[in-house]
Amino acid sequence: MGKKAKLKKMRRELKAKSQEHTKPNTDNFIKQVEKTGYRLQNIQRSPEVPRDNVEPQL
Fold first, then answer.
1. pLDDT for 1-58, tens place per residue?
2. CB neighbours of 34 closer than 8 A, spacing ≥ 6?
3. If you ran DSSP here, which 8-state letter would residue 55 be given?
4. pTM score
5. Distances from the Cα of 37 to the Cαs of 27, 40, 43, in angstroms?
6. Sign of the dihedral defined by the CA atoms of residues 20, 21, 25, 29, in that order
7. Which long-range contacts (CB under 8 A, 24 or more apart) does 37-46 make?
8. What is the DSSP string of 1-52?
9. Within 10 Å of residue 1's Cβ, how many Cβ atoms?
């Protein structure tokens, strides 16, 4: 096996290992959001904004 082939093989193995570790975990995301003070069951929505059509003054 040549030097370039060995390097290519090593790069492929490193990519495969790094892809295994970067799979997202939804439970971790929810835990992180809850640590900041937000709750999934108690959603606080913004108040309704009045929709008055105001005519511009000339």
1. 789 999 999 999 988 877 665 666 777 888 888 888 877 777 777 777 776 777 777 7
2. 40
3. P
4. 0.33
5. 16, 10, 11
6. negative
7. none
8. --HHHHHHHHHHHHHHHHHHHT---HHHHHHHHHHTT--SSS--PPPPPP--
9. 7
